User: Which sequence fits this backbone?
């Protein structure tokens, strides 16, 4: 069989024992994974202090992204697209948007998770800016194991059911592992708990209401808006304007709380099959392979569509002058009404397949053992999103068209339309007033499909070159040929703008990457006074992409042991992130954005800044202009509101890669006089330039008016009344991003006692700086300590665990701490404890500082004498709930203002594993 050698550690291709401490790597073994009580790798990684909330979360109910429903890793607050995910040191499949879904990797075959908190583009190529998550799978398993799990929230919802079966067999020359898993996670609904029942939380239960379910019309002569009377939910004759009352946009009487119909977190079902195998052809050559197939189904629901005449896009959508239900006969009448009877439901299915096969071996050369490996990997993901609850605009236009009376029945006037199924629609009748036949006719069911494929060939070689006085100079080298291709096909009706679904153009494109790298580990001193070890590591990788050309990235590391129990380390790494297939080739798409217009005369910058007010006036904005939200009401706080008109986002085939510089310095201290104690302290600083970003509405408007950069003023168009009528959010290499901070780890295993073994583990991160510069010449935004959309930029995040084991029993208590964050004020005099402080996120005066929160988890376990094990736990033992952050609502994900990183309830679970 193959001779035993030291394994390659995440962050280096060189095999050896010393390299593993040269870079900051956090490792979580199988026992620690089970102690979390979590069954999804994405959730497990998110518990680490150096991880943060990814761009797409299960809380994004209104997200139109095809990545919705997956679980992603985000290190250093730099985004999931800048976090590279590996499995056994090799790239895993990514989506069109560059995200790697960790839920496609079965937890049951994971031996450990290694997180490199450092840049590693010189070793692995693109995306390794924030860090690397390497999932190491088990390669030997004897017998069989069945594991079942059940967990449920304290409110009785969000139940999690999980079951896996694993079988393995090993001989001297071969091993094989086969398994299957099933996971069923129930949805959480907004209406279930007071925390999420209102769009802006329980402190403002009357805020955030949207368009109502009862018919509203606009007088075609005066422009006055009216809503049909609906006492007790009963609607009278909609064709008589006397049966209407004026619509008051500042009252909730005719509006609707959309949260009552929405899922807070989507329900998910996941099934997977997996197999791994290894066969030793000889003592020096082995074959290996892995195959995984996953199917994930996700269901999310949002409130019925806020239908109005403007929903008809360029052709408009009005009640015909000759329609029997028109209260203004003889006029084309504009209307507005939410179709609450038909909530919008999205069923998303993702099928992911990964297969890799390769060979590895050893050979002697120049007195040293060399290791080689060659791997071919193929990954494919097929995803579909089927959406119901939208409106077929062609059929709606016919159903709202002229009517006639035939055989005493009101019917569509056009005989051909009647023959095709047209049924008159009294859109103004409100809930219960529309027959099922009408919903069948005007309702829309559409399906979009996405496919991504990756072909990857990788070869590596590593070994000792020659001996130096301080040790062996070791080297590694290799190449990679990767072909990425992605395709997105929207439903033709959606793409053509024939439904109320957000219109998206097709995507089809890809690129080829050819890369080669070299790495050297050079020992300089050994076994000298104040130099038990001194060594440097240098690596360089050249990458050539057909999309943008070539680039080289280098990395230099230093490790120094002045004495045996202290290691000092430092790195300097260049990195890059290549534009994704979606960045380069995605078709343009519609998006409804939430933002604060700086020209708003009550809450925008114009309210307090004369220069901004003058620029708005020069652009033709009325002096008393008020921004309106999706319901037509004026915004009521500095959180802004969702625009009633869709904006456009799009790709940019001329994009260049992002570039980064990562610097780290730290120490590992294991004092000889305290056996079992390990202390780590690391400093990090990451600078990214040429950031690929969609320029969101709020930033574009602020660049134009607040920062007085006229180059941005051409990206949007205002109507005569001042409201934003169109806006372009296409991608660009723009601005920069910097993050800086410290990691502290303290692990102590107490001396064994008669009461068992005790271990304390503490891992913390301190964020010193997080600075965004949105465009060249723009003022930097220092956001450390802010709630930034769905991502909390905590100054301090810390996990503290105490583990106890005695004979067959064990228990773990874990405390997860999140420091307080700054948030937007509700208004200058409500929830605004720092009214004079400039909000670095929005550029508006007024900050609301929210306090920190700690969640406590408990798990107890018992090893049964019949080779079984039981674990029972409670996450969030004290039922703590975090503060509400109004910047979360501003992210436009459709969620109430609750931080997606926080627990919503006490969570109970029990698991049982049986080995055979």
Assistant:
């Amino acid at each position: 069989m193959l001779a035993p050698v030291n394994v390659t550690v995440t962050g280096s291709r060189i095999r050896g024992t010393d390299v593993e401490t040269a870079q900051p790597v956090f490792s979580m073994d199988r026992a620690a994974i089970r102690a979390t009580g979590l069954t999804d790798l994405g959730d497990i990684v998110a518990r680490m202090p150096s991880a943060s909330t990814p761009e797409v979360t299960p809380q994004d109910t209104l997200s139109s992204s095809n990545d919705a429903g997956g679980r992603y890793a985000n290190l250093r607050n730099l985004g999931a697209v800048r976090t590279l995910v590996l499995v056994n040191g090799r790239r895993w499949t990514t989506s069109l948007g560059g995200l790697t879904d960790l839920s496609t990797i079965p937890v049951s075959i994971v031996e450990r998770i290694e997180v490199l908190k450092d840049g590693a583009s010189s070793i692995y190529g693109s995306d390794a800016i924030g860090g690397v998550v390497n999932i190491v799978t088990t390669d030997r398993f004897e017998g069989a194991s069945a594991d079942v799990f059940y967990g449920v929230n304290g409110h009785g919802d969000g139940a999690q059911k999980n079951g896996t079966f694993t079988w393995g067999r090993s001989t001297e020359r071969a091993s094989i592992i086969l398994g299957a898993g099933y996971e069923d996670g129930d949805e959480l609904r907004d209406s279930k708990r007071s925390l999420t029942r209102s769009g802006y939380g329980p402190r403002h239960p009357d805020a955030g209401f949207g368009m109502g379910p009862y018919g509203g019309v606009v007088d075609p002569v005066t422009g006055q808006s009216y809503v049909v009377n609906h006492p007790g939910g009963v609607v009278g004759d909609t064709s008589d304007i006397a049966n209407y009352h004026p619509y008051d946009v500042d009252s909730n009487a005719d509006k609707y709380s959309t949260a009552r119909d929405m899922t807070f977190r989507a329900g998910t079902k996941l099934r997977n099959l997996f197999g791994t195998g290894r066969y030793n052809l000889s003592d020096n050559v082995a074959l290996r392979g892995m195959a995984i197939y996953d199917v994930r189904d996700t269901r999310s629901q949002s409130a019925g569509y806020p239908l109005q005449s403007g929903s008809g896009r360029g052709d408009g959508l009005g009640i015909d002058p000759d329609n029997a239900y028109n209260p203004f006969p003889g006029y084309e009448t504009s209307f507005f009404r939410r179709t609450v009877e038909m909530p919008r439901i999205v069923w998303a299915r993702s099928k992911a397949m990964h297969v890799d096969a390769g060979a590895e071996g050893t050979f002697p050369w120049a007195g040293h053992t060399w290791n080689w490996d060659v791997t071919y990997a193929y990954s494919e993901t097929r995803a579909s999103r089927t959406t119901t609850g939208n409106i077929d605009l062609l059929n709606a236009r016919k159903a709202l068209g002229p009517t006639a009376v035939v055989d005493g029945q009101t019917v569509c006037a056009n005989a051909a339309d009647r023959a095709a199924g047209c049924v008159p629609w009294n859109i103004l009748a409100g809930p219960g007033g529309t027959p099922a036949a009408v919903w069948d006719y005007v309702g829309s069911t559409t399906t979009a499909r996405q496919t991504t494929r990756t072909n990857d060939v990788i070869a590596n070689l590593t070994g000792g070159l020659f001996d130096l006085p301080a040790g062996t100079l070791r080297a590694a080298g290799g190449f990679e040929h990767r072909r990425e291709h992605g395709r997105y096909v929207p439903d033709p009706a959606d793409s053509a703008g024939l439904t109320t679904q957000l219109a998206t153009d097709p995507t089809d494109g890809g690129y080829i990457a050819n890369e080669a790298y070299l790495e050297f580990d050079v020992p300089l001193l050994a076994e000298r006074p104040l130099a038990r070890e001194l060594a440097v590591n240098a690596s360089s990788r050249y990458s050539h992409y057909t999309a943008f050309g070539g680039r080289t990235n280098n990395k230099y590391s230093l490790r120094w042991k002045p004495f045996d129990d202290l290691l000092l380390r430092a790195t300097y790494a260049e990195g890059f992130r290549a534009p994704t297939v979606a960045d380069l080739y995605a078709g343009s798409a519609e998006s409804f954005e939430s933002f604060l217009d700086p020209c708003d005369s009550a809450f925008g910058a114009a309210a307090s800044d004369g220069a901004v007010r003058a620029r708005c006036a020069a652009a033709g904005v009325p002096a008393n202009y008020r921004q309106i939200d999706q319901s037509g009401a004026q915004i009521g706080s500095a959180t802004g509101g969702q625009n009633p008109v869709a904006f456009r986002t799009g790709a940019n085939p001329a994009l260049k890669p992002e570039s980064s510089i990562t610097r780290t310095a730290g120490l590992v201290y294991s004092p000889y006089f305290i056996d079992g104690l390990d202390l780590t302290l690391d400093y990090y600083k990451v600078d990214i330039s040429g950031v690929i970003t969609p320029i969101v509405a709020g930033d574009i408007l602020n660049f134009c008016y607040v920062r007085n950069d006229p180059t941005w003023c051409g990206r949007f168009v205002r109507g005569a009344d001042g409201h934003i009528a169109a806006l372009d959010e296409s991608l660009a290499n723009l601005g920069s991003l910097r993050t800086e901070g410290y990691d502290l780890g303290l692990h102590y295993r107490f001396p064994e006692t008669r009461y068992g073994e005790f271990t304390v583990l503490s891992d913390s991160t301190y964020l010193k700086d997080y600075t965004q510069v949105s465009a060249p010449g723009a003022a930097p935004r220092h956001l450390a300590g802010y709630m930034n959309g769905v991502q909390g930029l905590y100054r301090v995040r810390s996990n503290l665990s105490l583990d106890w084991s005695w004979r067959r029993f064990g228990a773990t208590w874990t405390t997860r701490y999140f420091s307080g964050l700054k948030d937007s004020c509700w208004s200058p005099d409500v929830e605004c404890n720092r009214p004079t402080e400039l909000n670095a996120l929005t550029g508006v005066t007024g900050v609301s500082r929210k306090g920190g929160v700690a969640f406590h988890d408990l798990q107890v376990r018992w090893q049964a004498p019949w080779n079984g094990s039981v674990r029972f736990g409670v996450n969030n033992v004290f039922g703590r709930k975090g503060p509400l952050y109004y910047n979360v609502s501003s992210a436009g994900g459709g969620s109430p203002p609750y931080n997606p990183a926080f627990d919503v309830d006490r969570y109970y679970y029990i698991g049982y594993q049986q080995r055979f």
Observations:
- Residues 124 and 358 are 18 Å apart (CA to CA).
- Residues 17-177+184-189+266-300+506-584+654-695+730-915 form a domain with the Maltoporin; Chain A fold (CATH 2.40.170.20).
